[in-house]
Write a structure and sequence with these properties.
- There is one protein chain.
- This protein is mainly beta.
- It has two domains: about 100 residues, Sandwich (Immunoglobulin-like); about 850 residues, TonB-dependent receptor, beta-barrel domain (Maltoporin, Chain A).
- The chain is about 10% helix and about 45% strand.
- The chain has 14 helices and 43 strands.
- The chain has a 22-stranded antiparallel β-barrel.
- It comes from Dyadobacter psychrophilus.
């Protein structure tokens, strides 16, 4: 009731306001032509507008004195004093000078004071002008765009990893996908329902599906590279990604098509290392995006985006060298059978590469002024994508003997089972914002939901095939859903203290819900226990009814955020946030940051903060049995691995510690330097200590424990794994951006950006160099600590993602012609074999390729990927761009780990990746804007 009264009071006050305001025109300083789309904002408020196609604007404001912030990407922003008298309209005609896009744009992430330029911000913030750069890049989704532009951001598409094939996990500063908070227009974005449970990078994490937001709908993305839990809440340990949607009026869009044109050595094991490359054309990607905006009054708008993407699969499989058909009288008969059936080894290829994805979505972004003091706003979207990926090939020789005859009646040459995904993502946010007296307020409700359903095809439940060849081959395996509803009430006000004090405070209530839906009976049921074969659909068995259900939790939070301009040169800010969770209690976090200008061109900045990440509901309640392939005696063996909840009976038997929140401490120090009007530089160093990092353990066997064996059998599993707080970590890094922007002659411009990050992520160790593992006494006593957390887990934290990444981007524009050149260097990565002791060479396995004893550890050297794009303005409003990503067709090194490359199938590692394994990508794009 109080909230309703507040809104009604604001509405009545606004309707009584006198008619006065500000109007004018914003022009380019050199050409004097009007600039469309320039942001006009009353500093410290949400009252603003943008210029029209001629550069004109008008803005309703009440009587009083204001600072008007004028900003536009690529130009130096201005802050203009304005004194508006009752009943009068003030005219402001201003011009903007071109500058670097990197530092001069106004940012809103990390500060509630009404926006500062990047160089004035006390914390490092990257600005990615998505709406501009898409003209020059072949990537069509946000994850890939950011990977090649923002060095601190990394996302590699996964393969042979169940659901992770369909939603790309992403990292910031080499930390987990769930340690970065994602906002849209400043409001919390919900996570995916997917848990990354396979053996890839980011195993055990839950991220946000950035690709569910069409790139066509995005104006820019702000990446806050600093801990911000005290400002925004849980997950903001590595930083914050704020996706800002388009607001412009008019029609724009793009149509693009591209595909991989590449070559790789498919038979490098079969031919004993000889380089016999095969030419491949695949991964064809068609994309269409349309954006239309309509101006509502002086500062209102409705902006709608629609986008469709059809991405074909890619495949970089190696040729299988193992036995294909069952032996006869002890003799391998592969060549004979293949000859009789007109087959060769290519018939038995796996699909190792990008999944096939087809889908699209719509996004709405709207702001409707009710009066000079009250706006109603709403934004949100709907996205659906359907994916298809494959698992390990089930070769005839590997099909259990008890079911072979019946399976061969349907699959005489074995089968390659497929995972079909149906992923739906919806979001909606709406609210009121305005002013009450001298206070601004924002009341909003944000809802988001992600549904991930699985259907398995070209498969079989072996226990159905024991007695019949009329078995099911397609299964509805169930799925997961995650929803989040967040209510925010925020207040802010500027006080005339020293050079200005901004006070922001607010409250938040959030409700999360996670649901597991059971698969149909045949997808999981064991129809013949006595047969001794794996139950459930091959590649991905269905979710059990006993694991199905919904789980929820709620939290409430309150914060205060102060930002004081002590002098014109010195800014000091501080934030404090308290949160209470219904399932694990309270947390209190702080942040302090400062920036001091030594001169007008040189500034120092620093911050210190604490943070936390609540265990996701997915990590608390996910329970499932998956088929994993593990290396035993040099062979790949199928293993039914059950993921059990942390509070389950198997976890209790094994002594798995209880799940709790992660906590962190962060420190950042840096400098911003404007060398002259063309050069700008930022350098920041950071340290992040995270305690009680949550991991997904490795697979525990029953070890002869009858009670545990019974629990596993009930889940159709032979091993068990769990989520647990296993280790503490320390992350250190150095990040820098150097930009150069200049005019060359009358119609030419040159912009170059050199950016880089250097990352050192370490699990904390004792004096002897041994990782400190938070294991229970039971695990210690039974000698199972290495199963709890092993060397491969260690490598995922320390070296499985690039330790450094650098990029150089050059954009040259001459009249209607433009060119973009970009080089991205992905630092080295490594795989560490979990089964060996590096200090005991006598225990190392024999490499079947070399005949030598060696570990399966492998370091992959740094690689440079080069992109080029040429664009031309065909006619007014139309631009054609053609280019190539990875124009020199660079691949990461071939791998020699994971069971001696799994009998030739894996040419490139699926455990660790740098830039993916797709090779050269050729594209063409038509962009239009009216």
């Amino acid at each position: 009731m109080k909230i309703i009264l507040v809104v009604l009071t604001s509405l009545l006050m606004s309707l009584a306001a006198l008619s006065q305001g500000i109007k004018g025109k914003i022009s380019d300083e050199k050409t004097s032509s009007g600039l469309p789309g320039v942001s006009i904002l009353v500093q410290g408020t949400n009252n603003g507008t943008v210029t029209d196609a001629n550069g004109d604007f008008s803005l309703n404001v009440a009587e009083g004195s204001y600072n008007i912030v004028v900003s536009f990407i690529g130009y130096t922003p201005k802050i203009i004093p304005a004194n508006v008298r009752a009943g009068e309209t003030l005219t402001l005609n201003e011009s903007l000078a071109e500058s670097s896009e990197i530092l001069s744009e106004i940012v809103v992430t990390g500060s509630r004071s009404g926006g500062r330029s990047r160089i004035d911000s006390p914390v490092p913030v990257d600005i990615i002008p998505v709406s501009q750069i898409t003209n020059n890049v072949g990537q069509v989704d946000i994850n890939q765009i950011l990977t090649y532009i923002a060095p601190s951001f990394q996302s590699s598409r996964q393969t042979i990893s169940d659901g992770s094939d369909h939603i790309d996990p992403a990292q910031l500063r080499g930390l987990g996908p769930d340690q970065v908070l994602v906002l849209v227009n400043g409001k919390r974005r919900h996570q995916s329902s997917l848990v990354n449970v396979n053996g890839t990078v980011n195993r055990g994490t839950v991220g946000t599906d950035l690709n569910a937001i069409p790139a066509t709908a995005v104006d820019k993305i702000e990446i806050l590279r600093d801990g911000a839990a005290a400002q925004y809440g849980s997950d903001a340990i590595a930083g914050v990604i704020n996706i800002i949607l388009k607001t412009r009026a008019g029609l724009s869009g793009n149509v693009s098509y591209g595909q991989n044109v590449t070559s790789y050595d498919k038979n490098y094991i079969l031919n004993s290392g000889a380089d016999e490359s095969v030419n491949v054309s695949d991964g064809g990607t068609a994309q269409v995006g349309i954006n239309y905006g309509l101006k509502i009054g002086d500062k209102g708008f409705v902006n709608i985006t629609g986008e469709y993407v059809n991405r074909e699969a890619t495949n970089r499989t190696g040729t299988y060298t193992g036995q294909i058909f069952p032996a006869v009288n002890g003799n391998v008969i592969d060549d004979q059978v293949m000859g009789e059936r007109g087959l060769d080894r290519n018939t038995f290829d796996m699909r190792i590469g990008n999944s096939k994805v087809k889908g699209g979505g719509v996004v709405l972004n709207a702001n409707i002024p009710v009066s000079a003091k009250l706006d109603v706003y709403a934004f949100g979207g709907y996205n659906n994508k359907k994916g298809n990926a494959a698992g390990f090939y089930r070769y005839p020789n590997g099909i259990p003997a008890v079911v072979r005859d019946n399976v061969f009646a349907v699959y005489p040459n074995g089968f390659l089972p497929e995972i079909n995904s149906d992923v739906t993502d919806i979001s909606a946010s709406a609210g009121f914002r305005g002013t009450i007296g001298q206070w601004k307020f924002d009341l909003s409700n944000t809802f988001g939901k992600n549904d991930f359903d699985y259907e398995i095809s070209n498969s079989v439940n072996y226990t159905q095939a024991v007695t019949t060849n009329n078995f099911q081959t397609r299964f509805k395996a169930g799925g997961n859903a995650f929803s989040q509803n967040t209510i925010n009430l925020d207040f802010g006000r500027k006080f005339d203290v020293l050079y200005g004090l901004n006070v922001a405070l607010g409250a938040e209530q959030r409700t999360d819900k996670y649901t597991i839906t059971a698969g149909e009976e045949a997808s999981y049921k064991n129809y013949d226990v006595a047969a001794g074969v794996a139950a459930g659909a091959q590649v991905f068995s269905g979710f059990f009814p006993q694991n199905a259900g919904s789980h929820s939790r709620s939290s409430v939070a309150g914060y205060i955020d102060l930002e004081q301009d002590i002098t014109k040169a010195w800014v000091l800010s501080a934030a404090l946030r308290f949160e209470n969770y219904s399932d694990f209690g309270n947390t209190l976090n702080y942040k302090v940051s400062t920036r001091y200008k030594i001169t007008d061109r040189i500034a120092l900045r620093a911050s210190a903060s604490t943070g936390f990440r609540a265990p996701s509901l997915q990590q608390k309640y996910y329970a499932k049995t998956n088929t994993l392939f593990v290396t035993q005696n040099g062979q790949q063996v199928a293993q039914e691995s059950g993921t059990f909840t942390n509070d389950s009976r198997p976890a209790e038997i094994l002594g798995i510690p209880k799940l709790k929140q992660e906590t962190s401490q962060s420190f950042t120090v840096g400098t911003t330097i404007q060398l002259n009007n063309a050069f700008e530089l930022t350098v920041d160093a950071y340290q992040i200590d995270i305690d009680d990092r949550i991991v997904l353990t490795n697979n525990f066997s029953d070890g002869g424990n009858a009670a545990l064996k019974a629990q596993l059998a009930a889940a159709n599993a032979t091993t068990a794994n769990f989520f647990s707080n296993a280790v503490d970590t320390r992350s250190r890094g150095l990040e820098g951006v150097l930009s150069y922007n200049t005019k060359v002659g009358q119609n030419q411009s040159l912009r170059a950006v050199l950016a880089g990050t250097f990352i050192q992520n370490k699990v904390k160790k004792d004096a002897s160099g041994k990782p400190i593992i938070h294991a229970s006494e039971i695990l210690e006593q039974t000698g199972q600590v290495n199963t709890y957390f092993n060397r491969e887990d260690l490598s995922r934290f320390e070296i499985a993602s690039p330790k450094n990444k650098q990029s150089l981007t050059i954009n040259y524009k001459a009249g209607k012609f433009g060119i973009m050149l970009r080089g991205v260097r992905f630092g080295e990565v490594a795989y560490w074999d979990p089964t060996i002791d590096p200090t005991k060479p006598d225990t190392w396995p024999v490499n079947t390729l070399t005949g030598q004893k060696e570990t399966l550890d492998q370091t992959f050297d740094a690689k440079i990927v080069t992109d080029v794009a040429i664009n031309y303005d065909l006619v007014k409003g139309f631009n054609l761009s053609i280019g190539a990503n990875n124009v020199f067709d660079v691949y990461q090194e071939k791998h020699n780990h994971s069971g001696n490359v799994s009998l030739g199938r894996f040419v490139y590692s699926r455990r660790v990746q740098q830039m993916g394994v797709n090779g050269r990508y050729i594209f063409a794009r038509v962009n239009f804007i009216f």
